[in-house]
Task: structure prediction
Amino acid sequence: MGGPAGGAEERWLRTLDAVLERHDVLRAHLAGDLLRIPPAGAVTAAEVLHRIPVRGDLPRGELRALIDAWTAGARAEMAPTRGPLLRALWADAGPSAPGRLVLIAHHLLVDGVSWRILVDDLRHAYEGGSPARHGLSFLARARALREADRRSELPHWQRITPTPALAARPLDPARDTVATVVHHEMRLDAESTRALVTTLPGALRATPDAGLLRALARAVRAWRGHPRLLVALESHGRPGHVDLSQTVGWFTAVHPVLLDAAEGPAAVAERLRAQGDGLGHGILTTAGLLDPVHPEIAWNYLGRYAGPPARETPWQSPPDADPLGSGGTDELPLPHALMVNALVRDDRLAVRLTWPGELFTAVEIEELAGHLHTALRDTAAAVEDLVSLGDGRRVAEVQALSPLQAVMLRHSRTERPDPYTVQSCFSLTGVLDEDALREAGADLLARHPNLGAVFPGDQGLVPQAARPDFRVLDQPAGDVLAADLAEPFDLGAGPLVRLTVVRQGGDRFDLVLTTHHVLSDGWSAPRILTELFALYTARATGEKAGLPEPVPFTRYLDWRAAHRPDLTAWAEELADLPEGDHFGTGTPGPAWQEPAVVTVGAGPVGELGRLAAERGWTPNTLVQGAWSVVLARHAGRTDVCFGAMVACRPPELEGVEEIIGLLANTVPVRARLTGTLAEVLTALQDGRRALLDHQHVALPELERLTGRQRLFDSMVVFENYPVDREKLREPAPGLTLVGTRFREATHHPVTLTVMPEGEGWTCVLGHRAGVDAQALAEEFLATLRSFGDHLDRDIRTLLEGE
Result:
């Protein structure tokens, strides 16, 4: 770097001594398999600094040659087991001309981020200040990582498997060294660069790696025909929850990422979030708990760099400096068959491909570079479609789909009528401020932007300033409800929220809230209504709503990306599961059939509660057990499976109870009906508990895992989320709730929903055409009531109706 003019050698010695004292790792050297850090003062600036007097008018080429010669000698003398592993050259041009300061450090001591810290500290110390001292030291961070327990990450890393070879032979450390490297460089235009490194990451809440790696995977598929690519991803290894912003050291994390060329940027972003800080892979392999994989390709996005300066200025890299730095000695083995480094300079993305000359020909790499350039341009061109809608609306955020969102969208796009249109009708009395309600709807979507999301593809797009559809009608309520329910949502354009006021005359009206189920779950429903009326009250009165800060839906999406479910546990649970065709294999009829409704009174519910308490079961276990018996009778087998709606609100996720969105999921519940009824119920509950931490699994993953076309054809929902019914009776000043009606369905042939109401239960059996719902509902109710007489008897007596 350029240095200030006239720096006396003693001043540089004091500067370097201050930096050596501040950064313990700069004094380190190898001692066997350990990095030994001697105490402050053990390594001095006098051992590190070398001064060379030069003429102030020395041509730049001659100065470069002088520095290169000194650098080669310093490298040759540097021995990791002896130290010092830091060297400095001061090319002193005298008091009237700028000199040149050159630093060389072994990679054991520094990473890319460290150089910026070192330069800042050198300048600060040279000018008489003290280097910054906050944050962890390198030694403290190393000890913390050594003691870290990352075994919970094992299932994730174990799923990363090798992909087909790209090179003609494996990497040979004796032949493929730094001396054999060849480079190929390419650059992208400024507009595409801006889309890839600014616009797309902002929309995805991700790093530029998401879009860039997606392009790399597509380029390799075009180059070699491989649909998947294993990449060694290099990152800075400095997670945000640890203060390492002023710490010098080699923190770089290199970890494998398995890419699918068919995936879009949002899916890649979610994949990268699942890696967490990336350090778990190295910790687990070092501990011998994980067999490492060895990607052929390494990827490193280095960020933005300023363009080369027109002239030398103090404390800046000179115009002839390489922003990618220098490599190691010629004998150093290369770690990968192909290394791809990318950075932005002068607002354009520059990509350098580096490889040992014997592994690929220049023609092969030029072909790959051409495919990569095309894939980068194509990805950049698609960004505009991703961040804007056809009518000119801009997209504020791109969100990955939750598991149940993906399932619902699949059926909503292929079935008519859409089985996932949800209608809630609230009959109210009082004087309604219709303008205040309209604005309250917009305020609700502003608080929870995911409620304004649209779904044109395999991700959710959240438009800026989304508003619900709002209508005021004077037609008969029955006609309005029927027409509203039949009106399909445009999933790709939205809005997927409709507010309809149906005037009934006088002070009576119906408020109809119709949404697509892909936006929210049952847990969210009462919160949506509570917040809507709080915002309405604020609009009507001009006062603040007094609502707490919203907890964003993206907090759950990030949690899920970082906590992949254990597919091994699911594979064991579902091994040899029969096909889920308990109600026949025919195509189900259309949705929106009138459901069957049965009730369980306070007396039977109390008795069931007593039985459950005595045996340590939940009421949900009794419901699922009774439905298992019904399924077994209809399927004619004792190994059955149904779907269960689970909340998927992990208690360790702060504020999860307040999140509004579709966190819920449907997971398979397997019941093996052998032994006594009590044993079956206990096994059912134990099985659910064993998989409790893995309920955020995607059903398509389980279908692929088991090879089943359908895991189940019925679903059980036990509604136990909290509802403040007293608060809903008077949702806003001057308004009283006098009645409610709900209409929702699923794509499953049969859905059993059990709703505690007062001291009893209401059981609603939704169904598609061709199912005798009333008979099924009554059979379920009779089975549930008979449990007290069969608990310790062989379950065959219950299956056979004895």
Q: What stands out?
A: The longest helix spans residues 362-387. The mean pLDDT is 89. Residues 440 and 536 are 5 Å apart (CA to CA). The first strand starts at residue 2 and ends at 3.
